[in-house]
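This section describes the prediction task in plain terms. A model, or a person checking by hand, is given the sequence of a single protein chain and must write out its three-dimensional structure as a string of tokens. No templates, partner chains or ligands are provided. The sample shown here is typical of the held-out split.
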Amino acid sequence: MTNRPRHPLRFLAGLVAAAAVTACGGGGGGGGGAALDPAAPGTPVSPGSSGGSTEVTATSALTVAFDASKIPTRAAGLAVEQIQYTGKSGFASDLGAFRVNCDFSHMASDDPIVHPNQPGRSHLHTFFGNTGTDAYSTAASIAQGGASTCRGGTANRSAYWVPTMIDTRTGTPIKPSSAMIYYKTGYNGIRPDMVQPMPAGLRMIAGDARNAKPEGPAKFVCIGAGAESMTGHEIQNCPAGSQLWQLVYFPQCWDGANLDSPDHKSHMSYPVDGTCPKTHPVALPEVSYNVIYEVTEANAPKRWRLASDTYDPSLPGGYSSHGDWFNGWKDDVMRTFVDKCTRASVDCYANLLGDGRELQ
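The expected answer:
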């Protein structure tokens, strides 16, 4: 078969998705907690600094320092829609799945969901997809403006972001090699035929940037070099030559009315006992992120922490892992893969829309 993702990890996705539901209690977006991100942004290390002291105190909160001069260059992205008929299709499955490959876009201390119109208010984030995403982004600007670093170009202007991975030895923000975004169903008991297309303007978050315990809808796994058994809520010390994957799983049950909520969680819910609760009756594709980091040096991940890991630095890094998602799909394209892949119980590999067309 052609066009199969390099590491589908279907077995791992099911395991982590089930663990996420258990950890989050399956309820309204994690119990209706407060907004995710802590008040204090990451503290930059001045250019030229050794970055040796990476956990500093500022505004009564620990922060993960980073060297702003080492932030990777912003990507240009694709400013046009790129979809081509290839005749390729997926295969029948008990799960419905569509995946899209996205490259790095940019890094910024912005979060238009949690801290709208407040540039620099957040810890440092790594963005994929819409190249124009910043603190001032709105549903309209996401859907109608910006290029995209995802396959398909402007057919997918969605914005995807996670806290930036920092090498605490040098303060270097680490650029991921790529990200694979899943839109799937079946893992948590939601039948594929129950799934509906995602509404325009929907936004949501998964996980909690203030978490300091080994729990929640995010995990890290090692891929390659025979290290696939290494997995957990903390950043794994994957061996040189392997990849560290950051997995984040979003709730898939919507209340059917609100595109956002004050805590950015309550309008969404994880499934409960294999179904969407009455309070959140609309089943959507389950969004999940696989953010991929190359490990090129032995023991390098021991020095890595997320920009949001503002808890006791003696604890393992990664507990604060979370993700933000802001819908920017062109509606007819999104409806195609939902109908032809997710709802139809077809595994469409990566970038196949299920109707013979492929995102380029």
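For orientation: The helical segments are 10-24, 139-144, 331-342.
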